[in-house]
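Here's what a typical entry looks like (Sestrin-1 isoform X1):
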Amino acid sequence: MAEGENEVRWDGLCSRDSTTREAALENIRQSILRKTECLRSVKETSCRPSDGLSNAVSLDGLNKLLAHLLMLSKRCPFKDVREKSEFILKSVQELGIRIPRPLGHGPSRFIPEKEILQVGSEDTQMHTLFADSFAALGRLDNITLVMVFHPQYLESFLKTQHYLLQMDGPLPLHYRHYIGIMAAARHQCSYLVNLHVNDFLHVGGDPKWLNGLENAPQKLQNLGELNKVLAHRPWLITKEHIEELLKAEEHSWSLAELIHAVVLLTHYHSLASFTFGCGISPEIHCDGGHTFRPPSVSNYCICDITNGNHSVDEMQVNSAGNISVSDSFFEVEALMEKMRQLQECRDEEEASQEEMASRFEIEKRESMFVFSSDDEEVTPARDVSRHFEDTSYGYKDFSRHGMHVPTFRVQDYCWEDHGYSLVNRLYPDVGQLIDEKFHIAYNLTYNTMAMHKDVDTSMLRRAIWNYIHCMFGIRYDDYDYGEINQLLDRSFKVYIKTVVCTPEKVTKRMYDSFWRQFQHSEKVHVNLLLIEARMQAELLYALRAITRYMT
């Protein structure tokens, strides 16, 4: 746990038993009030200059506790905990201590808070899901609150993540969180890095490892190369990468450990894509999620603006430009018409295998030239970059500098027939959980498109999934890649490629500029497709390399 929190136990608040929570809350209240009184008395009696540092340390510890209470008052699924946390904060404030307030406006910078389910207003089924998540992690994080647009997927996601991080498995708990940190850091995702730094310490991880990857055990340092290639250029993974990890003498990985690590790496690379793709805000109790500054007259101060925490009205201005509602409406109508025409063409004639292969190569080549006008290098912050090596290594298209990468044919190696069984054999039950999550994301539909109902969206969902795999060189022999250009316009392709390949470069403008007439829930649905297609693509390359090493 973070410094200053080691004397306060939050675990009891995760209990489903109200008596246990009540006892835990009372202990927390007494502990925080003792610290508050102690700090006040020290302030009143302290006159030596040397006391200033100890006062600052004491105040910093108290502030972390108060920030945690603020998070509980807003995000705990148990009403008694929310109310008591707010009461404790007010008690501290009455003693003359400044208390924190949230920064920003909700779990996402891209989605208005009023459109996201508020904690406390959920139905019974959703409350159970929230309570499960809170019991497992001790928090209800912003990713969960955005994914809740799609409860069926969220339940599968939380079950899988819980198994990977907390259930029996080849890797010790602190290794799991450290690998999560390494993976998220490849995309400079400070949101996920901060969460897992806290989790790593909570399960007994050595704080020295957090000073940089070079301070971690050699075994984890050796994983750095696979992490790097998997995150940015997975088509370059070979069985030699696998052999180096499995035959590193006293620092060797077992096959089961390596499968666990690969699944964790791909999970967190993809989750970084979701974090940036949906504009996930910092958690309330983390850096950037709260402030101790008092609100100004207009309810936000200039420091909030520089941190991207703008006023509600300003946040809801469409940064995609002056697009009229009628233009957006016609975009939806045009997309629906293209879907109808493509279906008719499918029914009338089928392209030859040669033509299908040619269309794949054309689409793969064209995907190289899809980039954003905002495309510029993002320099990672030191607190994130220390968790990985070779900070200059990033995504590169296939044939830059004349490099050619052979097409990965799903007919030769696929998740269903090969990857699934390999994962399940070496890390029981995980293959099943991941498979279920893939299927839910791919098949999820409410048969709606913007304002239209009773729409078969399978063609559109398949185009999105296959476009992502096409960017990674993965080809389905039975798919006509000519459909992609018909269904996905340039602004959507820019968004997809950025979220999947360089998520740290995603902007609100990109999010706003595609599917302008669609609901936010539909854009979150798109992100679920993007992250699962990306995770499967990475897994296919890694698992194929492991299979080749084994045979």
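The beta strands are 101-102, 290-291, 408-409, 448-449, 452-453, 474-475.

More examples are in the samples folder.
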